[in-house]
Amino acid sequence: MKSKIGGSFHLPQTFSKKDIALEANSFTSAGYEYAEILLGLSIGPIKAFKDKLETLGNLISLYSGHLPQIDYEKEEIEICKNYIKNFSDQGIKLFVVHLFSINFPTKNNLDYKIKKLRELADFTENHDSILALENTEEEPITLQKVFNEIPNIDFCLDIGHANLLAKENQSINFINIFGTLLKHIHIHDNIGGDSEKHDTHLPIGEGNINFIQIFESLKEIDYSGNITIELYKPDFQTKKLSVKRLGELMV
What we know:
This protein has helices spanning 17-30, 46-57, 74-87, 110-126, 140-149, 171-178, 211-220, 236-250; strands at residues 5-10, 34-38, 62-66, 94-98, 130-134, 154-158, 182-187, 226-229. The protein is of the alpha/beta class. The chain has an eight-stranded parallel β-barrel with strand order 1-2-3-4-5-6-7-8.
């Protein structure tokens, strides 16, 4: 596999240039090849955040941005557009979005969410970037409807999420159905479960996910997109170990 390995990067408002340099050094030393920026609904003044992002971009490659979880309100869509507009010119060319939202269930609001996602996908395309929809709790039939109605939105496979709310990990099923749309991957481990609290984002190999079978399926479709490791508050050794284990799976 030709994929690059990256990691999620939280850029707090309180970070100084020294903090950014230290964190970037931890990233590169652990083996990460790029950073995926975690974006919240509030990041403070956009200019200050862009300055921090530029500082980080001089230290490590910036590839993707994870848009905040939204309830699909007009103001939240505009915040997402603002991110896409301002950061697509700083090396971030792929933006990940969730269909899931805590306060606005998809089941009875799918058509409305599709409408707003189409708006975001068109906006992203107009800024020469890619919008990728990440699986969370959805069944394949729900995602299929989104992809059928929005031709310019791609797929981000989250291997950890595919291990929840199901008898077995659904990653291979997602790969078989949406492989031609697959542009990005998030990877983390867990022991399964039937609620959001079980989405524990453990290091690779610390849960019960059979990554070997999943990566065999990825190799069969010749996947070459990037893979972001998503861990909760990892220390340096945890980062390094997960990069090592992912590298072994990719051989």
